[in-house]
Specification:
The chain has 314 residues and is of the alpha/beta class. The chain has one domain: 3-Layer(aba) Sandwich (Rossmann fold), CATH 3.40.50. The protein has seven helices and 13 strands. The protein is globular and about 55 Å long.
Length: 314
Amino acid sequence: MASTFIAEVDDKEVTIHIPDLVKVFKDGSIERLQNSPLVPPSTLGSVSSKDVVISNNPFISARLYLPTKLIHHHEAHKVPILVYFHGGGFFFESAFNERHHNYFNLFLSKAEADILVVSVDYRLAPEIPLPAAYHDCWQALKWVASNDSDPWILNHGDFQRVFLGGDSAGANLVHNVALRAGAEALPNGVKVLGAFLSQPYFLSTKPIGSEAVEGHEVYPNAPGGVDNPLINPLAPEAPSLATLGCSKIIVCVAEKDSIRDRGVWYYQAVKNSGWHGHVELYEAEHEDHAFNIHTPESENALKLMKRLAHFILH
């Protein structure tokens, strides 16, 4: 990310500006630069959704997606549970925005995926600095595994097939939650079966491949900067990748993405870590960062949806 600087914009002093992400003004107001509109849950053809509260203190919520045909079935047919963390650089976007709502309606319908999605709305920086988002996502996973979650989860979720997934910063969250799942027990003995990391956001002070030499900054400033273990999974203080708490992982990268090489670096690091699970790499040709969220009806986005559905269902 580019450096923080101070500027004057519309007679309001900008105290923090991270280009393309966020502006924070001296008066405390915040301008998020890439948010898409919020939309309500819906029943659209074969997919239904609803919003739930996970915790009131701190406030954590989620949007659930389920194939409509399953809603009135309380019998034996159980489906995998995908706990999903959205991207947005930890600064913007939401589980309730138009982009992600459209994406999951397409994901479940176009990929013909009988999957229950729990799209988590974690708290955003800079109002709530990191590492709050990591704690929120872990609490959301614990809630899913508990006896106090939503009836859709309890009636239709297969707790033998719990998956984590996320794009960009959300993939970073997936990695860190998977590490925690390897170190701490979830309620009712639930285990995470697998995880997908789509165009994962990681950094280190040493550029990888085609990365820019400068501009590696994380806000809010974490101890150790970009070599904080939350941002650099191979930092000296980072937990061993061999302790990842799941059995299979797929890392998805995009050919034209500026952090494409970082995703390959992570895949190779997991593969060589001594971790006893199965890891694979998927690359979308001719695509840029978060293409699957921004253009979900494109040919390559639909291919990725079907690949992820296959990863979860088989």
